[in-house]
Amino acid sequence: MSARTIQQRVAHLEARVAELQEEVRAARLSAKDWRRTIGAFTDDAGMQAILQEAMRLREADRQKARPKKVGQRKSSR
Hints:
- By secondary structure, the protein is mostly helical.
- Helix content is about 65%, strand content about 0%.
- The chain has helices at about 5-30, 45-65.
- It starts with a helix and ends in a 12-residue tail after the last helix.
């Protein structure tokens, strides 16, 4: 291989690495991470209503899942 070919290859690789580094940097800046939404709906009345309804439904599901008490067990004392 000639020195020129190696120089061309190195230059090409350096340019490609620079492109990849820029892609990674841009991806990090624009990442839509779940942590960006924390607190977004804190004071939203509509979201509070949704959460209250969800909690009501969850409690109703819990009540359905609990075994029904047939009667009191007598103490062995």
